[in-house]
Amino acid sequence: MSDIEFSAPWALLLLPLALLPWWSRSRDLPRHAWIALLPRDHLSDAIDLALRLVATLALAAAIVGLAGPYRGPTTVTRVGEGAEIAILFDRSRSMDLPFTNNSSIGNRAETTGDSKGRVARELLLRFTAARPFDEFAMFIFSARPMRALDFTSAPDAIRAAITANDVGRGLGETDIGSALEAGVAAFESRPYLGARVILLVSDGGARLDPDVRHRLTAGLQRIRARIYWLYIRSIGSATIRDSGEMELSDAIPEVALHRFLESTGVPYRAFEAEDPKELGRAIEDIDKLEKHTIVTTAIAPRRELAGWLFAVAAGCAGLLTVARLRQREAWGAA
Amino acid sequence: MKTGFAFRLAPRRALMLATILLALAAWGPTVTLPLARFHGIIVLDVTQSMNVEDYLADERPQSRLDAARVALHEALQALPCGSRVGWGVFTEYRTLVLLAPLETCAHFRELSGTLDSIDGRMSWAGRSEIAKGLFWALRQADVMPARPSIVFVTDGHEAPPINPRHRPHYDGKPGTVAGLILGVGGLQPMPIPKFDPEGRRLGHWRADEVQQQDTYSQGRATSIGREKLVETEEDVGPVDWATSGNEHMSALRERYLQVVAEELKLAYLRLNGGSAGAHDLSRALGRSALAQRVPTPVSLGYPLGAVALALLAFVYAPGALRRPALRSRAQPRTLSSRS
Predict the structure, then answer these.
(1) Domain chopping of chain A, boundaries
(2) Same domain for B125 and B267?
(3) Residue A159 — very low, low, confident or very high, per pLDDT cuts 50/70/90?
(4) N or C, which terminus of chain A has less Cβ within 10 Å?
């Protein structure tokens, strides 16, 4: 619970106005000095006091209301089915190229229109929109990992981080090792809330240095994350599907990365997609796999309290109006 | 007596009206007005010259990038709800959009989180071709939905230096995308701290480690090695143009940025240190050139409440009290006996 704050605190300077109803006594008493000669009427005194209090309350409530009180953004705990997902999104130039399927290998003319990156982004948009309880963080990477968004479940923010990649072409180099390390670091500074997922979306692999491999293995085990690799296969790229027919060679960067991720000891699955449909299925699979209870905190937007104060002021003003109306009736009766 | 009666009636009416207005205010009606709100992408230069510490914060040196971030944080808070801010970074010769524009009030945490994570380690290459990066940003904004404006935060230190005669050329139409160049840094040249890609500090850049001359002045390929062509003999730019031989030092190249801003029909603002600078920045961002009219719900609660308060104050103001005292109102018999 956060404290109450004001969006226009200067309005509180008007608060002395709330004492106006008490001023009348000193002014009026001498003019009606004869009242003092009457026997003291305790009921009248009480009603007088009450009306002044009500008037003060009406003025004070209206003034405080005008100062725009609000209870600052509060955190609310939500329990749902989801995970904390760090998306590592490849921003290398090759992602700007269109998809391919086996039949068109070597024939660029037959490739489908949308780039791999665009298709991946659209699927990610659908995936994130369908999982309201997930906390997403977005990293884009080329030569360096860049955090575009820290963990959040705000749908607009997630969308903004994904669609930002629609603009401009990709960057030259790719360093998956440092991207994975950034993903690990993103979790390391956070309390463990529930299932942790690193979702690597790339169209290539890499042979990592031994010390990077060592650091990653230790880091991944420490943060207890699962890894999914959405491998978007390009024209002429190697498969990481072990069909058993052909020996997969570690010399192929994709195979090397696949083998390394398998060896880390944390749950890992690779999804190889050669066309948008396959990519869509992979995303659906991940959606199915990641159904765990997660306790997250969401930021509830700040609550404006002015309405309540105006309501109090309205109530008080209503009471005073009724009191005046009765007074009028008394005159009329005389 | 008639006038007196009318005078006494007014407060009653005022009270009744105040009650109605307050009830309306409590209900909280809103009208949607097309208000001008900032809508843009703020691009931060993350090249190494932005690490020069020529600002002061609490008597401590502060880097250009940190000073810019602090000021942007304050500006982010000061922007009215309905404003939309996106972030981008500049290195090499291009701009990369990290986050598309987002409404600032609902996403303050997300926006400030991303701003915090923008630092020199994001830099994916060593070059700093600012004009090209700015063109890139403008071109991107031009094709983005709702055409956001561009705020380009830089010190104007081109690396490698550019030749005033052979400056990159903007192929778009200046003025299509509105923008602001925010110049950061001091006017006194300072050594540039050197960092490795992981962000570890390695002293300062030395004179022999940076390209001191622009590519043109180094001489074009001629039949004999470094023979110069006549046209490259005298390339004199504005005062703080590339300072041949002193490129390992960095100052805010304000004149250069002003020239670029003028050519591209952008505004220019120098970021001063401390809260004054942040205040100027907030004001500049609020200017209508960078804004777009967005349907913004405006609460009628406050104006209604303000009128109601004025009515209440009128009822209890001393001037309006020249009539039977409040005290006597509770004693109808006394009053009636009087009339």
Answers:
(1) 4-72+302-333, 77-298
(2) yes
(3) very high
(4) N
User: In which domain, by residue range, is B325 found?
Assistant: 302-339
**Residues on chain B touching A23 (C-beta within 8 angstroms):** 316, 318, 321
**Maximum CA extent, chain A:** 116
Neighbours of A190 (CB within 10 A): 14
| Total tally of structural domains belonging to chain B | 2
Nearest Cα neighbor of A196 from A223, A178, A230 is A223
Considering the domain boundaries, does residue B26 fall inside one? no
pLDDT interval class at B320 (50, 70, 90): very low
pLDDT tens for each residue of A52-94: 999 999 999 999 999 989 887 777 787 888 888 999 999 888 8
A313/B308 CB distance under 8 A: yes
B194 and B337 assigned to the same domain: no
Indicate if B209 and B74 belong to the same structural domain: yes
Q: Is residue B171 included in any domain, yes or no?
A: yes
Distance linking the first and last C-alpha atoms of chain B: 10
Contact across the interface for B110 and A157, Cβ inside 8 Å: yes
Is the ipTM value over 0.85, yes or no? no
In chain B, what are the helix, strand and coil shares in percent, each to the nearest 5?
40, 25, 35
CA nearest neighbour of A92 among A177, A176, A13, A180: A176
Beta carbons of A156 and B11 less than 8 Å apart:
no
Same domain, B96 and B135: yes
Residue B317 has pLDDT above 70, yes or no: yes
A29 vs B contacts (CB less than 8 Å): 325, 327
If asked whether residues B208 and B322 sit together in one domain, one would say no
Min CA distance, A6 vs chain B (Å)?
13
Name the E strands within A29-81. 69-71, 74-81
For A:75-94, CB contacts with B below 8 A are 91
User: Same domain for B88 and B192?
Assistant: yes
Inter-chain touch A331–B122, beta carbons under 8 Å: no
Determine contact, residues B49/B192, Cβ cutoff 8 Å: yes
Confidence of residue B336 (pLDDT cuts 50, 70, 90): very low
Topology of A77-298 in CATH?
Rossmann fold (3.40.50)
